What we know:
Blueprint: H1 2-37, H2 84-105, H3 111-129
Amino acid sequence: MDEGVIILFFLLILITVLALSCIGLFVVVRWFVRRLSDGRSGAATQTLSLPSQPPMAQQCVNCEWRPSAGAQFCPICGARFLTKQQDKSVRDLEITLLQITRMHDIGAIDQVNFLELRTRIEKERELIIFPNGRPGVIVRRALSTIPLHAAAPRRTRSCACAFCR
């Protein structure tokens, strides 16, 4: 009986060593194949990525105020709390403005075109954040839209009455 237990013990050790050898060989072959293919096989490796920070609560893009639950507009500045798509659009506009500013700084865009592009980008941003206009701001017509030749003619003093003075 002692010889049977010893034989079973050696068989168990032999099977364990053989299993570990096979697993090790499989790992080495897999590593070697990945090194040869260098990721050109077309199969994308899936990885689990966790956000580095917990998702932030929604905040105003204009004044960075954190709203109470269910609010649609900022109580401080009156800006609309944006959806993800609107937030992405605002960020894209800010990136575009940064790029045209860089292009203007290196001389690729002249002053007139830079100011026109910057004005249009800022107006688009304002329309996204303040769809009904900024609260408390009176909308006035820009002076630059009135042609210079359309200005009212100057009156000359032709009479001495109090009304014409």
